[in-house]
Write a structure and sequence with these properties.
The protein has about 260 residues and is an alpha/beta fold. The protein has one domain: TIM Barrel (Alpha-Beta Barrel). Helices cover about 45% and strands about 15% of the residues. The longest helix is centred in the middle third of the chain and has 17 residues. It is globular and about 40 Å long. It contains 10 helices and 8 strands. Strands 1-2-3-4-5-6-7-8 form an 8-stranded parallel barrel, surrounded by 8 helices. The chain binds SN-glycerol-1-phosphate (1GP).
Length: about 260
């Protein structure tokens, strides 16, 4: 198994801290990227993701990546919505498959079309299973997903176990950007008990207490994006979320120690 530098960094950071926070920057929406990057790094975020379900311009991605790189040395990982998200200048790309899409394009089609460009651009491809739950937001709509109901966590467990057996090295439980309700703790906890790969949770996480309970339930990575566009106090808000996650570590189910 060949593990790249960014993936190893994620494993090491999770193993050392019990969880990490990643700041998601939507290249289409964020008009004050440099300020957000500085605030996120000061608050203790461990990496940046660049992506958005309705962002389809490669030039927007490249501009956002360059701005992040001008302010921070933390890893930048592309969070693609389509082949147009494959951009130069990032460290890595989530090589992700939306397993509960009804459209094979989002499961394997875009990946086949994109891999040569990913190699040409020297991006580290990190295999990740992407599952959309609950309301699903724009990601659910654009990705033609059949979202997993929060009330049926067994379905999320089945997908996550299958993802691990298929060789995916991360699983992302996505509720959709800006949704009212984040992935429930019970779903995270049941997935945690069923797989040993790192679990990423995102969508609708807005405060420290949500971060605390999500990490306590077994999440290894929490991702926040939308809240940065809602607040002018980015550093304070991210500090609150990251502090919440740290409190969650002491109560965490199945503390992950990942290696390669
Ligand atoms: C969306 O999971 C991410 O893909 C983050 O969600 O924008 O709601 O923080 P928010």
């Amino acid at each position: 198994m060949r593990i790249g530098k960014t993936e190893k960094y994620l494993y090491d950071a999770i193993s050392k801290n019990g969880f990490i926070h990643i700041t998601l920057i939507d290249p289409e929406k964020m008009d004050r990227i440099e300020d957000v990057v500085e605030a996120a790094e000061t608050a203790g975020s461990s990496a940046f993701m660049v992506g958005g379900s309705t962002s389809h311009k490669t030039s927007d991605y490249e501009r956002a990546i360059a701005k992040i790189k001008s302010k921070s040395s933390l890893p930048v990982i592309i969070f693609p919505s389509n082949v147009a998200s494959i951009a130069r200048g990032a460290d890595a790309i989530w090589f992700m498959s939306l397993l509960n899409s009804m459209n094979p394009y989002y499961i394997i089609g875009a990946q086949v079309l994109g891999i040569k460009t990913i190699r040409e651009f020297g991006l580290e491809a990190i295999p990740m299973a992407y599952l959309i739950l609950g309301a699903g937001g724009a990601a659910g709509y654009v990705g033609d997903a059949k979202p997993i109901p929060f009330e049926i966590p067994e379905l999320a467990v089945g997908y996550a176990m299958a993802a691990e057996a298929l060789g995916f090295r991360f699983v992302y439980l996505e509720a959709g950007s800006g949704v009212k309700t984040h992935v429930p703790e019970r779903v995270i906890s049941m997935v945690r008990k069923s797989v040993s790969i790192p679990i990423i949770v995102g969508g609708g996480i807005r405060d420290g207490s949500a971060a605390e309970s999500i990490v306590a339930s077994g999440a290894d990575i929490i991702v926040t994006g939308d809240i940065l566009e809602e607040t002018s106090e980015v550093k304070d808000k991210l500090s609150e979320i990251i502090e919440g996650g740290r409190r969650g570590v002491s109560k965490k189910e199945g503390k992950g120690s990942y290696c390669c």
